[in-house]
Write a structure and sequence with these properties.
552 residues, five-stranded antiparallel β-sheet, alpha+beta, Uridine Diphospho-n-acetylenolpyruvylglucosamine Reductase, domain 2, seven-stranded antiparallel β-sheet, 19 helices, Uridine Diphospho-n-acetylenolpyruvylglucosamine Reductase, domain 3, 18 strands, Alpha-Beta Plaits
Amino acid sequence: MKHMKWWGWGEEGVTFRYNDKPGFGDFIKAAIDIDVTKESAVETSFDSLSIPCSQAPQELRASLQAAVGADNVKDNARDRVVHAYGKGLRDLVRIRSGDVGRLPDLIVYPGSENEVVGIVKAALSANAVVIPFGGGTNISGSLEAPRVERRTVISVDMGRMSSVLEIDEVSRLARVQAGALGPDIERYLNARGWTLGHFPDSFNHSTLGGWVATRSSGMQSDKYGDIADLTRAVRVVTPAGVLATRPVPSSSTGPSVREMILGSEGRLGIITEATVHVHRISQKRQIYGYLFPDWRRSLLAMTAIAESDAAPSVTRVADANETRFSFATKKHERLAGRAKSALSKFYLRRVLHFDLHQMCLGFIGYEGTIEHVNSTKRLVDEIVGRHGGMCAGTGPGELYDRKKFDTPYIRDFLLDRGALADVSETAAPWSQLETLYDGVLSRGRKAFDEIGVRGYLMCHLAHSYHSGACLYFTFAFRPSDKARGLEQYDVVKGAIQQGFIDFGGTLSHHHAVGVEHAPWLSQDISPVGVTMIRSLLDGVDPGHNFNPGKIV
């Protein structure tokens, strides 16, 4: 299987480059006091890692080899390190410092559901721990084994189970194996005129099973829905056998078993396939850039769009801080481009009376028939204009569409230079968004002051719903004490997460609970809610063999 870098995001050889972005260096220096020309982080070579030997007993190893074939059971050092963590900020700081955590003892690659059944039987018989692994993109600690775990740990990599098995063109449903990566799913569907329409930030490296297990959301969720909306049925290998639900449009059969699997993070079993909605590829698809005079009017416009008859596929707007960051990542412009930018700024300042320091950049996407796209855009443009904004054309939207999966590389670039950067996202009702935004910004700034750093905190709105939307915060700072970097990170991350809870949001909109967000779960869903989840997990997996320690 092809995996991401053991020390960072994405493929080897692919990195963020700043040389063609004239404003980036000065922006980062002013924001977090980092000189981007100097790499300050100590590079750790793989050979320098201290890798403990696998503790898998020979009998279990033999049982797994019988289930999947000897070539599909691995215990080499690189495979074990790759499967030890996800790609969260904490994960990368630890692995780069040589802290490999509790490595899995064996990596097993099943090729069918029957082989997964064999793995589970062997693991339960040996009282081993089983952790499902998709693309390894998780950033909430959902993939790591507890450090105190003394039992054999098996990472079950679903990468061989990567096929689209069937398309029901009448019902517009597709059966897809859990190990299928985003690009492979779309490539297969697109060739037949279909799309799943699910495009999370991790799209290039994440799998359908991972999306289902973490309740993922994609950039075009306004049209297609989150993965919970797209998933109609699941097949899961549990301790009690294979769970199979039917792909019916709706049912009244008690608490939804399908919903229990959504967001279960491998604690109830190993997802082997899902049946999902697919849509015909749209006749027309366009994303436009929009400019708003300030954050408050941006929120009002997005609220009005959600309330209207308009049906865009993407609704996203950045606050002033994130807008400045976006402009700082612009590439060198030729003379004609610089002249156009200067003219645009003159028009915004002198004609529309924008304060460019408060200006917010938005992206709104349209998909469907030509008539639908045109009518929706006319309605959105009217709403945006009513709130003081303006359409900036397709240029910014096309650039966003091309670069939408590249942001994690910037985090690694900053980490190479001694800065810690991470994200936290939430969702709240429309009436709470402005209060939540102001409160979280205040908490974040106080946290920066508490640890004595110059930090940067920015936000964008995305994923609009009938009653509210997602707010996605990004923060970065250079630790005042490198040895206490993660401790200082916890101060900032904790302040933001507590702000979500205190100001009416949820602990996570689409990054899952894992171990990173578990401390806030009882405040989010109430202690009784935690008791119900714990009872479910204990009832299905009384031996805590499946990904123990996650969610609760």
